[in-house]
Amino acid sequence: METPEEFKTQRPDRKRKRDTVEAENATMDTAEQNVSVQFPQINPAQLEDQTDGFRKITIPAHRYTPLKENWMKIYSPVVEYLHLQIRFNLKTRCVEIRTSEQTEDSQALQKGADFVKAFALGFEVEDALALIRLDDLFLESFEINDVKPLKGDNLSRAIGRIAGKNGRTKFAIENATRCRIVLAEDKIHILGSYQNIANARTSICNLILGSPPSKVYGKLRNVAARTAETDFVKAFALGFEVEDALALIRLDDLFLESFEINDVKPLKGDNLSRAIGRIAGKNGRTKFAIENATRCRIVLAEDKIHILGSYQNIANARTSICNLILGSPPSKVYGKLRNVAARTAESF
């Protein structure tokens, strides 16, 4: 006869199966943790969308004539700088842009579309060009009814408060926030950097909601003072003289722009040193000539170039510097600078 010690408790089959499954899962989790997942490196060419190489921008009827008059100003930067193909389709009344074999920048198509769209919304060509040259600019559009539902005379009065007498209020907001604003009936379009657009929109919304212009002007002065102080410190840190950087506080139409030589043309070693030498010139003569002709101030910091001046003057100085980087002889650049200096003198 069997004793009690000889009896063994039988474990249920379900519990044994559950223990087996848990042990297998634990083993698999440990194996997965020990093996690090490695993904192959992606070729930059694979990031480019080969199928989406076309943009179509509808042109409103009231912009047909300005488009015809400024077509070469629109055509040149899109083709020469962005290396895109552009045409105006007479049947659909749209500007069509597509990539070509020479297109290198993956963002070129979007920049070209934003540039043409800004012009179609009513911005000047010179202002819209900033979307191509600078990466931190954006377009924002909204309607007055998005802020406050208005109709009839109330809507007209709101538009009048935003524009001001002879456009003074709009110009004050533009100068204080360093944006460009277009009023198109009940729609408002703003071109500028993210923070500046936010400041401009706040001022416009206050006017729509009924705030008196004097109160809005007071807030704008504070915004302008903070922006000028920030730009002054930044300009001094980049290497500009204190007297030159102070102009950012005293004047409203001065800006800072920075870019690298490799943004224009990829250069290394001796080729990069020669490009820097061409920009500076013997004893800095070429740099001084560009500064005097364009009425800007330029700082060369290794392969980075910083320019301080008005919007149009910065564009002229950058064009001259880019030509030197691309290999144009200084004598040819001097000839173009004389023409620029003559036009600048005539404007004054």
TrEMBL record:
The keyword Nucleus applies. Keywords: Nucleus, RNA-binding. GO terms for molecular function: RNA binding. This is K Homology domain-containing protein. It is found in: Nucleus, Nucleolus. PANTHER family: RIBONUCLEASE Y, RNA-BINDING PROTEIN PNO1. GO terms for cellular component: nucleolus. It comes from the Eukaryota. Residues 1-25 are annotated as: Disordered. It comes from Adineta steineri. GO terms for biological process: ribosome biogenesis. Residues 1-12 have a biased composition (Basic and acidic residues). Residues 136-209, 253-326 form the K Homology domain. InterPro entries: KH-I_PNO1_first, KH_dom, KH_dom_type_1_sf, KH_PNO1_2nd, KRR1-like_KH1. The keyword Transcription does not apply.
